[in-house]
Design brief:
28 helices; nine-stranded mixed sheet; globular
Length: about 950
């Protein structure tokens, strides 16, 4: 039997037993903070099991995409372990129980109409105290007692060991069904979980019967297919072995079951399949949480290839084989094959660039250990290698064993456990308790009225005080306690929109004659809508009749931004490509942030086209409508469906004219013209393969447009240039200031005035003005709002520098020739010592350089000037030959500076000093001549 046939037969069987067929939940359930990936079929039904949602059906069957990494070290090594796998399941929410679950499982497995497995090949286990399940298997099914094993709580209870070790909450015994292989080994193919208890506290007597008992079963599709097809491993079944063969071909290896390369090829097969599904759902490799898992799997598979001699990216070449084998149950994979391939290739390239460095670091580690006679690889360092380079510990252990070294698994595991906590990878509490959970059980859901109205008469159904675990209390009434006391209020229905789909929650008031409650946020917990805020007047009572008023102005601004988001999404698809799908969004009052898939920055042409496209649709005033339709009808109508998103059936489809159809639960306008205005303010990277657009609508967009115009007009006035020439004039000003600073440093007083910029005449379009402001701000390295102040600062710098350069020529005019003419000959050298009134230190240094170049003889020069009327500057310079003869400019100027109450020094050939007693400058000049003659000798 083919794997696809087995999947369809299972689902058909349970549909025939009155079960509702439900699609697989997404692989990454962002709505569930307790897990990174969906680990089992029951996860999407957690609130169904707990009775916290309205039950549209009491029996369900699914084939769930799952991903687990707990047994990752066994992937490829054992016959049956995977990271990604499919789980067949049937579920009962207070409907049937053990007898039906066991009888139907047996019927599906053994009936000639279904799988027709010989009964002699099957045996089962039950929990040691579950006499009911034992009796059904033995007395009703007819299994001999030798085929029924009683197992302890660590094997046959869910969660494992719950009676003695916890956690508290829903739990129950299970019964596992095993298939006996030809060699006598038994393989578990199905687990029937009977959730019938609520655990409270420690044993004994801590298991309390639930009023409503449930069934949760799971059959591993790949494992069942392997035993039915008589294959030695799951990887040899009909829809996995072609991927193994494709991997072998890409890696240029012959596949062999028991070889090291065979194990590597199976691991590569598993990891590429897992990553293909994850990336398809827009979970790209990254530094934390689910993204980290994807990165870890890709890098681990790359290492397998590296060990087989591959030095270039190769995993991405296997993606088409995965899509080909999985296209029957998951045809949507074909829509993203190119995107998945590109993302995987990019991650491979990045890892190959670091892999050699990782192996080099391992060699260095081994060398250090040899130097100190170490015998055990440090677990912390091994964990760091894994986190930094993706080096699996078993590879490091293998390399270590070749050098007769052991491996610190305890240290490694402790380090990785801490990393799991730090990176958010640790699994959280699956079932939660508290006041909100109590309200969920009693109310199930809060009907939302806000599509049609923003004010409604309601009744208070719950008041929660406190906001931390253990500090929360569900009260019947609360008196005003000040703005520092946060309350949560639940109503029987509400016009307040709870944050979801990127749209922020509503704010407003809930009030009657007795009290006033300010709503500062609205959040959703499962199907319950919760109003957060502060009681500012009176006393709020449970069951009170109230008026719930949403802040209409803010809601309108949020709706503008949300409708604009749909228009923007359409424009991105049109001008960037079908892969540019939503990765995340945040919709606030007249502000939207939209993250989308793209590997490089958008070009100016693309940004302008996107902005223009959105504005055209706003100007067109297309009608906006929303309809609740069957999911199949929405798909047939061409509604955009995001990769990795699971939609209810029926769905709410929001249509804008004829150009956009999206499935969305947010609030919207009635007409695209009501967006009023749209300003795309930035496009930037937020992570690898993900870009972000920030835009404004309505009043904020109008204000931004006005601000942009004012910024540019102000800059044009400051620079005395046309608006269209502001960028050019700004560059000219920056260049001029830079040039003047160089002139001042060199002592070159030849000031060239900045040439006025007069080009770019005529009026600039607003789109052009916006680009000019952006480019000018980037040039000045400031925010747009700070352009004017930065230009003012540059103009002030220019003025100051010009004045300083003018001061260079304001003092006594002395040339190098003048100084040479007055030089004193001392031996074979020339001694030049004098004061130059009003000279700039830069001019003095320039004169010294000129003297050393012009003179045919070695020179020793010390020049002095007074700056600001009270500060003496002394600069000494000597020729190279005098330095070689032992003379030092630093020593010379230091002795002279002491005369004027100062000090200083510098290099042997050039030095500067200062003093604070100008009246003693004549004596200092005499001292300079005396010391200079002595040094020249």
């Amino acid at each position: 039997m083919k794997t696809d046939e087995l999947r369809e037969m299972y689902l058909d069987f349970y549909v025939s037993k009155g079960h509702t067929l439900q699609g697989s939940d997404v692989l990454v359930p962002t709505w569930d903070p307790s897990v990174l990936f969906t680990p089992a079929g029951m996860n999407q039904f957690k609130d169904h099991f707990l009775g916290k949602v309205k039950l549209d059906f009491t029996r369900a069957t699914t084939c769930q995409k799952c991903l687990r990494t707990g047994d990752i070290e066994n992937v490829g090594r054992t016959a049956y372990h995977h990271t990604f796998f499919e789980m067949l399941g049937n579920f009962s929410f207070g409907d049937y129980f053990k007898a039906e679950a066991i009888h139907w499982a047996w019927e599906f497995l053994t009936s000639k109409k279904w799988l027709n497995i010989p009964a002699g090949r099957l045996n089962v286990t039950v929990y040691k105290d579950d006499d009911e399940a034992f009796g059904i298997w033995h007395e009703q099914i007819g299994l001999p007692t030798s085929k029924i094993a009683r197992m302890d709580e660590d094997e046959n209870f869910w969660p494992a060991s719950a009676p003695s070790q916890g956690p508290d909450g829903v739990c129950g015994p299970c019964s596992e069904i095993y298939y006996e292989l030809e060699g006598g080994e038994s393989v578990e193919i199905w687990n029937l979980v009977f959730t019938q208890f609520n655990r409270i506290g420690s044993p004994p007597d801590n298991l309390h019967p639930l009023p409503s008992k449930n069934i949760d079963t799971g059959m591993g599709l790949e494992r069942c297919a392997s035993v039915l097809q008589g294959q030695p491993t799951n990887y040899h079944i009909d829809n996995l072995f072609p991927i193994v063969q494709a991997a072998a071909e890409v890696c240029s290896r012959n596949y062999s079951l028991d070889s090291d390369d065979g194990r590597r090829l199976r691991r590569i097969t598993d990891h590429v399949r897992a990553c293909t599904f994850s990336i398809h759902e827009n979970v790209y490799p990254g530094p934390d949480k689910a993204k980290y898992v994807v990165r870890r799997l890709i890098r681990r598979a790359v290492l397998d290839g590296h060990q087989m001699g591959l030095r270039e990216p190769f995993l991405h070449q296997i993606v088409p084989a995965v899509v080909e084998q999985m296209k029957r149950p998951y045809p949507e994979l074909a829509e993203s094959v190119q995107r998945v391939t590109r993302v995987m290739q990019k991650e491979e390239e990045a890892f190959f660039q670091t892999l050699d460095a990782a192996l080099s670091r391992i060699d260095q580690m081994f060398t250090r250990m040899e130097d100190v006679a170490g015998v055990m690889v440090d677990g912390n360092e091994a964990a760091d290698l894994y986190k930094t380079y993706g080096v699996p510990p078993e590879l490091l252990q293998t390399l270590a064993s070749e050098k007769n070294l052991t491996f610190d698994w305890d240290g490694y595991n402790k380090s990785m456990d801490q990393h799991a906590v730090d990176s958010g990878a640790g699994q959280k509490e699956l079932f939660q308790t508290g006041p909100l959970e109590t309200l969920k059980e009693s109310l199930r859901e809060t009907p939302f009225l806000g599509y049609e109205q923003i004010s409604a008469s309601c009744h208070v159904k719950g008041i929660i005080v406190g906001n931390t675990d253990g500090d929360e209390h569900l009260l019947g009434k609360v008196a005003a306690g000040g703005a520092d006391q946060e309350l949560r209020v639940v109503l029987d229905h509400t016009p307040f929109y709870a944050e979801s789909g990127g749209q922020v929650g509503d704010v407003g008031t809930i009030h009657n004659d007795d009290f006033e409650f300010h709503v500062t946020d609205t959040q959703k917990h499962a199907a319950l809508i919760v109003h957060y805020g502060h009681l500012v007047r009176g006393t709020i009572h449970e069951n009170a009749t109230v008026t719930a008023d949403v802040d209409a102005t803010r809601r309108g601004a949020i709706s503008r931004a949300h409708s604009a988001t749909h228009i923007l999404h359409h424009a991105l698809q049109k001008h960037v490509g079908q892969h540019a799908q939503q990765q995340g969004s945040k919709v606030e009052a007249d502000v939207l942030r939209f993250d989308f898939t793209n590997q490089e920055a958008l070009s100016e042409t693309q940004i302008e086209a996107i902005q223009s496209d959105v504005l055209e649709h706003v100007a067109a005033g297309d009608p906006i409508r929303w309809d609740t339709v069957p999911l199949a009808d929405a798909r047939a109508a061409g509604a955009m469906m995001l990769f990795g998103e699971k939609y209810p059936d029926p769905v709410r489809m929001v249509s804008m004219g004829e150009f956009s159809k999206e499935l969305c639960g947010g609030t919207h306008l009635d007409n695209t013209g009501d967006v009023q205005a749209f300003e795309l303010t930035s496009e930037e990277s937020v992570s690898s393969n993900t870009r972000r657009i920030v835009a404004l609508t309505g009043e904020k967009a109008k204000a931004y447009r006005q601000q942009t115009t004012e910024i540019l007009e102000a800059a044009a006035k400051q620079l005395a240039c046309p608006v269209a020439a502001v960028s050019e004039a700004t560059k000219s000003l920056i260049d001029q200031v830079r040039k003047l600073k160089k002139q001042l440093a060199s002592g070159n007083a030849d000031v060239q005035k900045r040439t006025p910029v007069t080009g770019g005449g005529g009026e600039a379009s607003y789109a052009k003005m916006k680009l000019i402001v952006r480019d000018t701000a980037r040039m000045l390295n400031v925010a747009a709002a700070d352009v004017s102040s930065r230009i003012d600062a540059l103009l002030a710098d220019e003025k100051s520098l010009i004045q300083q350069l003018a001061n260079l020529t304001a003092g006594e005019q002395v040339t190098a020739d003048d100084l040479l003419a007055d030089a004193e000959t001392v031996g074979e050298a020339l001694l030049i010592v004098r004061t130059i009134d009003g000279a700039n230190p830069n001019v003095i240094r320039q004169l010294i350089d000129q003297l050393r170049k012009k003179s045919d003889k070695p020179v020793a020069v010390l020049l002095a000037t007074v700056v600001g009327g009270d500060k003496v500057i002394l600069v000494a310079g000597i020729s190279k030959s005098l330095v070689e003869g032992g003379m030092s400019a630093g020593k010379w100027v230091g002795e002279v500076a002491a005369v004027v109450g100062g000090g200083g020094g510098g290099k042997p050939d050039l030095a500067q000093a200062g003093g604070k007693d100008p009246e003693k400058l004549p004596a200092a000049i005499d001292k300079a001549k005396e010391v200079g003659r002595s040094m020249i000798g």
